[in-house]
Amino acid sequence: MDRGRKLQKHEADESQEIEKPPPDVEIPFDVETLILPGYAREAAAEVLFMDGGTDNRSIAQIILDIIVQVPIDLRRVFLSNLLLVGGISRMPGLMSRVKEELLRLIFTDYRSKLSTLQDIAFYRFEKDICVQLFCAWLGGNMFGTLDVIESRSLSLEEWKAMSAKSVPDWTSKIDDYFKTLEPKER
């Protein structure tokens, strides 16, 4: 994490000294070779952890922003069952770096709301790469086959008919549903 902070400072002020970057990687393509500089590989991953203000949040900031919105009694459960999915989740050291960033933010920027939460853990899949890469798609696919998808979706016609194209809060649809039930059905 310290090296990552130094890289971010170096981007803003090139007079900052950084240690030797990781080695370059050579990728053969038929008769030619693509050389990926170590610094470029390292700096590309650092984008995930840079605080860009309100518009460009780091992975850790996004996670904590979501956790803060969760009911208090569920925050510890959520933080101890984080799930990183997709190709980038296979990056070596990503989970430990995210955990370090989360802990740093919990004790600084989110101290007033989350300082008692320190049990950060990631849900880990078996070693099968397919499960890690496609579990988000699989979850979305399973959700899409449920009957509940109709009550949480808008047709294209509904979308176009809405004024200012604002999507309603889906919880209001649930409230409307319960209002239609008879008292004995609740």
Automatic annotation (TrEMBL):
<dbReference type="InterPro" id="IPR004000">
    <property type="entry name" value="Actin"/>
</dbReference>
<protein>
    <submittedName>
        <fullName>Actin-related protein 10</fullName>
    </submittedName>
</protein>
<dbReference type="Pfam" id="PF00022">
    <property type="entry name" value="Actin"/>
</dbReference>
<dbReference type="InterPro" id="IPR018181">
    <property type="entry name" value="Heat_shock_70_CS"/>
</dbReference>
<dbReference type="InterPro" id="IPR043129">
    <property type="entry name" value="ATPase_NBD"/>
</dbReference>
<feature type="region of interest" description="Disordered">
    <location>
        <begin position="1"/>
        <end position="23"/>
    </location>
</feature>
